C-alpha cells in the first residue's frame, strides 16, 4: 500500500513508509499465489490483465493528472499486434508481448506529442479522437479481421518449456506480467520523476518557472502509460486467445476510467480493486439475469456519491484521520 | 445357492442393459444447455430473454428429462464482448459442465466461442450469428451447427426475388460494416439473376434526415430500393420513401423484427418486402406455439427465437435417440433426422453443420389486411433451401473442398 495522496489534496506526498509497504506487498503476493485454487484460473488471469491496464491508466491520471480518454487504442493495438504475431508469425508469447508493448509505446509517442499540449477536457477529446482513428483502422485493416475479430490465437509455450494451455501455467504467467508491470508503476510513482509529475499536476506554472520542461515530463509518462497498457492488452490476447474491435472501442477506455475511479485515482492499489470489481461484475452477473450495465452504472453512481476518492482512496483517507 | 442365483439375475440384467443401450452407452447423468446471448444490449429484442424462453419451451416438451436424466438450462449475457463470451464459454465447459452452447448472436462473439468449443470438443448451435464463414473457412463439422441464416443465404434469397420484384435496383446502405457486407453479398447475386444496380448511396449510422438520399433514389428511377441497414435507419429511410411518394418496391433488411415493424406502424411499413429465415406456416401447431410464446413474452417471436427453439429441440431428440451427449454421436444422429417443427418442415442438417431449410419472401400487410396486433407479415413465396444456401462444396470449409 502506498501513502500517495489523492488528486484533491494539494500537498506533495511524503515518501512511502517502507516497513508496512513490504508487509502489504508480501500479503499481495501470497494472495496472487493462491488465487487460482479458489477462482477459475482463466478468469483470474484475465482480471489481472485488466488490473494492469487500470494501473497503467492511473499512472497517467494519478501522477500527472492527465485524463486520457483514448487508452483503449494502446490496449487494443497491442492486443492485435500480439495476436497477429502469435497466430500468423508463430512467435513465442514473450516476443509477441514485447512487440505489442513496443507498438503501444510508439503509438503513445505519436498520440502524446499531439495531445499533451492541451489540457483538461481538450486533452481528453484529442486522445479520444485519435483513439477513434485507431478504432476505424481496426475495422479497415485486413489483419484484424474487422468485426469478426482475430480469434483462435494459439498460446504456445512460456520460456519454450511450459504449455500455456495449462490454466495454472497461464495464470502464473499473467500474474508474473502483472507483478512486473505493477512493480514498474510503483517504482515510477515513487521516483523523483514521479514526484516532479505530481508537482506539475498541482502547480504547473510554478514548475515551469522552476525550469522544468513540463511537456517532456508529461510525454514520457504518457509513453510509459501507453506501453504498460499495451503490455496488458498483449497479455489479454494470449489469455483469452482473441483480439476484437471491443479492445479498441471507446467503451473500453470508459471501462478503464471507471476501474480507476472506483478503486481510487492516485492510489497505487485502487485501480487493482476497481479492475477486480468491474471485471467480476461483468463475469459473474453474466448468468444472473440482472441487467449488467445498469448494475455497474448504479454502483458507479453510489461510489461517486459516497466514496468521492474511490474505495481505496476513501480507506486511506479514513485511516489517515484516525 | 442363493448367491449363484443373484449372480445369474445380475448377468441377465447386464445382458438386457447391454442389449438396450445398443451401440451407445448412456454417458451422461444430465444434459446441460447454455444459452449465451445478448441479454442487455442492442440484439436483446431479437434474441435475448426470448431465446432463453424458446429453449426452455423445447425442454418442457421433453418433460424436462431425457431417458430419466434431467435437462438443465442456464443463460448468460455476453454483453457483445468476444472476450467475455469466450471466458463464459470456457467456464461453462470447464466448471459448469455445459454440454452444448446455443444462440450466440453477434458473429465476433460466436467466432470466439466456436474456437473454445473446438478446443474442448463440445458442441455449439448458432442461431443469431450470421457470418457465412461458420460453415466456410471457420467450419467445425464435428462441433457446430449453424441453424437459422447466413449472409450468403440472405444475398441469394434476395437475388431469387428479382423475377418477381424487378430488374433495376438501388441501394440505400448504412455506412458501416454490416451495410457493406450486405451490399457485397447482394451485388453478385443480383447480377447472377440478371438485375442491374442503377445506383446507391451510403448514409451515416443514425441519420435523421433521409430526404437527399431518397431524392437520389427517385432520380435513378429503380424498380426496387434495398435498405441495407437496421433499426432506426430502416424506419427513417422507409418513412422518407413514403413521404416522397416513390413508386419503387422496398426490400428492407431491418424489417425482420416483428416488434420493430409494429413500432414503426403498418401505415409506414405496409408493402415493404423482406427475406425471413422463418417461413412461417399458418397451421395449428405453429399458431399454438406462437400463442404460447406470446403469452409468456408478450411479444411476437422473431426468427432467431423460433430458430433456437428448433435447434434445441432437434438436439434433445438426437440425445434421446442416441443416449449420448458426445458431440460426434449427437451430430450424426441430428443429420439422420428430418427437421420438422414450427421453424421449418423441410429442414435437414448438412455434414458441414449448415441446417438447410426453406426461407420466406414476406411482405408487410396493409392496415386493412392485418387482423390482429401481431398480424404483420404475409408469405409471398417460399424459397427452397437448396437454392438459397451455399452449396456444400467450395464454401471454403477445408473438409469439403471444391469439386
Any overview of this molecule?
The complex is a heterodimer of chains A (322) and B (403). Chain A has helices spanning 18-34, 41-64, 72-87, 93-115, 120-140, 167-190, 192-202, 204-209, 214-240, 245-248, 250-263, 270-284, 292-306, 310-321; strands at 157-158, 162-163. Chain A is mainly alpha-helical and 322 residues long. Chain A has a domain at 40-249: Orthogonal Bundle (ABC transporter involved in vitamin B12 uptake, BtuC). Chain B has 15 helices and 15 strands. The termini of chain B are far apart.
- Which architecture of the largest domain in chain B does the CATH hierarchy give at level 2? 3-Layer(aba) Sandwich
Q: Give a quick account of the main beta sheet of chain B: strands, pairing sense, barrel closure.
A: 6 strands, mixed
> Mind telling me which CATH architecture of the domain at 40-249 in chain A this is?
Orthogonal Bundle
- Sheet of most strands of chain A: 2 strands, antiparallel
The two chains with the largest interface, and their residue counts, are: A-B, 30 and 31 residues
Query: What is the H level of CATH, i.e. the homologous superfamily of the largest domain in chain B?
Result: Response regulator
Order of helices and strands of chain A: HHHHHEEHHHHHHHHH
Rg from Cα of chain B: 23 Å
Amino acid at each position: 500500500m502506498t501513502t500517495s495522496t489523492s488528486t484533491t489534496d494539494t500537498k506533495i506526498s511524503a515518501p512511502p513508509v517502507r516497513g508496512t509497504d513490504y508487509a502489504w506487498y508480501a500479503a499481495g503476493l501470497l494472495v496472487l499465489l493462491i488465487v487460482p485454487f479458489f477462482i477459475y484460473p482463466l478468469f483470474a488471469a484475465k482480471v489481472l490483465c485488466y488490473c494492469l491496464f487500470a494501473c497503467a491508466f492511473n499512472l497517467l491520471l494519478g501522477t500527472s493528472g492527465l485524463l486520457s480518454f483514448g487508452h483503449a487504442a494502446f490496449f487494443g493495438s497491442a492486443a492485435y499486434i500480439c495476436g497477429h504475431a502469435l497466430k500468423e508469425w508463430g512467435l513465442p508469447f514473450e516476443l509477441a508481448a514485447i512487440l505489442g508493448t513496443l507498438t503501444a509505446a510508439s503509438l503513445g509517442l505519436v498520440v502524446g506529442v499531439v495531445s499533451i499540449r492541451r489540457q483538461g477536457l481538450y486533452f481528453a477529446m484529442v486522445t479520444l479522437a485519435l483513439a477513434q482513428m485507431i478504432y476505424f483502422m481496426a475495422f479497415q485493416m485486413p489483419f484484424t479481421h474487422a468485426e469478426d475479430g482475430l480469434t483462435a490465437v494459439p498460446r504456445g509455450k512460456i520460456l519454450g518449456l511450459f504449455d500455456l494451455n495449462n490454466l495454472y501455467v497461464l495464470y502464473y504467467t499473467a500474474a508474473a506480467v502483472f507483478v512486473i508491470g505493477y512493480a514498474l508503476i510503483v517504482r515510477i510513482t515513487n521516483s523523483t520523476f514521479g514526484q516532479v509529475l505530481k508537482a506539475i499536476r498541482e502547480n504547473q506554472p510554478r514548475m515551469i518557472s522552476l525550469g522544468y520542461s513540463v511537456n517532456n515530463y508529461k510525454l514520457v509518462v504518457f509513453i510509459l502509460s501507453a506501453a504498460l497498457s499495451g503490455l496488458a492488452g498483449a497479455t489479454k490476447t494470449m489469455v483469452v486467445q482473441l483480439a476484437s474491435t471491443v479492445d479498441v472501442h471507446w467503451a473500453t477506455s470508459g471501462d478503464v476510467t471507471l476501474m480507476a475511479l472506483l478503486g481510487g485515482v492516485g492510489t497505487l492499489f485502487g485501480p487493482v480493486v476497481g479492475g477486480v470489481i468491474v471485471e467480476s461484475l461483468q463475469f459473474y452477473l453474466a448468468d444472473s439475469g440482472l441487467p449488467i450495465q445498469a448494475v455497474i452504472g448504479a454502483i458507479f453512481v453510489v461510489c461517486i456519491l459516497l466514496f468521492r476518492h474511490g474505495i481505496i482512496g476513501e480507506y486511506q483517507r479514513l485511516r489517515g484521520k484516525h | 445357492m442363493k448367491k449363484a442365483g443373484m449372480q445369474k439375475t445380475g448377468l441377465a440384467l447386464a445382458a438386457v442393459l447391454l442389449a438396450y443401450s445398443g451401440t451407445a452407452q448412456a454417458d451422461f447423468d444430465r444434459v446441460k444447455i447454455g444459452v449465451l446471448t445478448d441479454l442487455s444490449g442492442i440484439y436483446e429484442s431479437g434474441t435475448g430473454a426470448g431465446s432463453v424462453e424458446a429453449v426452455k419451451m423445447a425442454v418442457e416438451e421433453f418433460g424436462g428429462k431425457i431417458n430419466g436424466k434431467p435437462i438443465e438450462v442456464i443463460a448468460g449475457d455476453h454483453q457483445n464482448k468476444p472476450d467475455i463470451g469466450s471466458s463464459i464459454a470456457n467456464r461453462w465447459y470447464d466448471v459448469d459442465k455445459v454440454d452444448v452452447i446455443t444462440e450466440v448472436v453477434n458473429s465476433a462473439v460466436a467466432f470466439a466461442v466456436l474456437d473454445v468449443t473446438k478446443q474442448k470438443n463440445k458442441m455449439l448451435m448458432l442461431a443469431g450469428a450470421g457470418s457465412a464463414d461458420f460453415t466456410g473457412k471457420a467450419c467445425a463439422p464435428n462441433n457446430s451447427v449453424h441453424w437459422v441464416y447466413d449472409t450468403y443465404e440472405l444475398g441469394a434469397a434476395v437475388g431469387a426475388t428479382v423475377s418477381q420484384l424487378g430488374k433495376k435496383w438501388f441501394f440505400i446502405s448504412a455506412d458501416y460494416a454490416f451495410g457493406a457486407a450486405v451490399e457485397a453479398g447482394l451485388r453478385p447475386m443480383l447480377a447472377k439473376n440478371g438485375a442491374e444496380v442503377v445506383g446507391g448511396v451510403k448514409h451515416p449510422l443514425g441519420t435523421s434526415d433521409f430526404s437527399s438520399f431518397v431524392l437520389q433514389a427517385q432520380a435513378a428511377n429503380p424498380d426496387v430500393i434495398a435498405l441495407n441497414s437496421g433499426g432506426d435507419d430502416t424506419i427513417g429511410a422507409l418513412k422518407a420513401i413514403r413521404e416522397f411518394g416513390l413508386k419503387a418496391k422496398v426490400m428492407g433488411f431491418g424489417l425482420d423484427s416483428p416488434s420493430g415493424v409494429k413500432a414503426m406502424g403498418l401505415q409506414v411499413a405496409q408493402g415493404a418486402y423482406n427475406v425471413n429465415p422463418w417461413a412461417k406456416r399458418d397451421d395449428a401447431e405453429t399458431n399454438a406455439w406462437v400463442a404460447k410464446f406470446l403469452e409468456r413474452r408478450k411479444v411476437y417471436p422473431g426468427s432467431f427465437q423460433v430458430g433456437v427453439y428448433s435447434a434445441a429441440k432437434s438436439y434433445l431428440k438426437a440425445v434421446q435417440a442416441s443416449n449420448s451427449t458426445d458431440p460426434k454421436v449427437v451430430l450424426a444422429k441430428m443429420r439422420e433426422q428430418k427437421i420438422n417443427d414450427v421453424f421449418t418442415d423441410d429442414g435437414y442438417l448438412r455434414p458441414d453443420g449448415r441446417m438447410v431449410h426453406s426461407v420466406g419472401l414476406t411482405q408487410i400487410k396493409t392496415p386493412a389486411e392485418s387482423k390482429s396486433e401481431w398480424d404483420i407479415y404475409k408469405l409471398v413465396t417460399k424459397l427452397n433451401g437448396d437454392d438459397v444456401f451455399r452449396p456444400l462444396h467450395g464454401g471454403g470449409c477445408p473438409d469439403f473442398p471444391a469439386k
